[in-house]
Each structure stands twice: as structure tokens, then as C-alpha cells.
Amino acid sequence: MECLGYQLSYISSIVIKKNKLLTSYYHEYIRYAEYGLSFLYSVYNGVYKNCNAIYLSTPLVYNRSENSDYYDWYKYFIVGTTLVFEDLLKLGYTKKSIRIAKYQVLKKLVVYRIYFARLKNDIDRKKLAHLIFKFYNEYSLFWFICIPLLYTPIPFLRIIKMIIFKIRSIKK
Asked: pLDDT digit of tens for each residue in the chain (172 aa)?
């Protein structure tokens, strides 16, 4: 849980025995359907007591996200993952593993989404700040990275982007 977190929400990321996947009841499975995360809860529920797994870091199938008519990224990855993780805490996963999994979502998904949406001037900053605050206010990454990204002027963000690309090109 601490290593993989939300990444098991991609069906292509895991192959699991049918009897393990079916340990979740229908009402548990359907609860997360509107967030696109039914599979995530079912997998963690199925392997909670007996986790024998092999992790293949090379993707076999790539994710094609945002290929539907209506795709609410914030609903799926901020609200949905939080709901799944909170219920997994009730199931018996440790607070530490849930905290690390939520941190992964914040660091690997939310920060980048804010940054690129801000560059496009494509978000309601106040609404997003409120939504993220609701689920991630205990993380310093929220206060020191997300909030400044939401309220830093766009021209300054573009300068930061240029500097980052320059540094990366020098390292290569």
C-alpha cells in the first residue's frame, strides 16, 4: 500500500486471482464506481490479509485518460482516492500507509495538475483550494507547494517552467 498507493487504480497495473477480486461485496464495489475507483478498493480489500505479489515496474498497457465526454479529474483523483483510502483505513490498513498513499496522490498527481492547469489558466483557484484543503490540509506539501502554485501569477510560473527545463537540459 505504501509503495503503490493509487497506482493500482489502473486496471492494467495488476493481475489478480478472481477469488481475491471478488472478496468485495457489490455495495462496496459500486460505492466507488462514480469515481472510477471500484477496482482499487476491491484489490486492496482482496489482498489485505494475504498479499503475495510481484511488482513489474515496466508498464505493459498504457493509460488513456480523459478519453470520455465528461471527465472530472478532481472528482476521481482528489475525492475518489481519499474516499477509498479512508475506507481502507477502516478495513485495517495502517494510518502510516494511508498517509503515504495520500501523499503520493498529492505529490505525483495534484501538484502537476495544478501547475499545468494554471499555465493554461484553466481552473477555478478558490474552488480547487477549498477542495484540496478538505482532504490534504495536514500535508506541508499542500501549504508550501499547492497553495503557492494556485496563487502565483502565471507569467512567473512560465519563468519557473523555463528554468526547470534549462536545468534538466544541463543535467543531460
From this structure: 566 666 656 554 455 555 655 666 677 767 777 877 767 777 777 666 666 655 555 655 444 455 555 568 888 889 988 998 998 899 898 999 999 999 999 998 899 899 988 988 888 899 899 999 999 999 999 999 999 999 999 999 899 889 988 898 887 7
Q: How many domains does the chain divide into?
A: 1
Separation of alpha carbons 164 and 83, rounded Å: 34
Whether this model's pTM surpasses 0.85: no
Those residues whose C-beta lies under 8 Å from the C-beta of residue 164, and which sit 6 or more positions away, are none
State the residue range of the domain holding 143.
Answer: 5-171
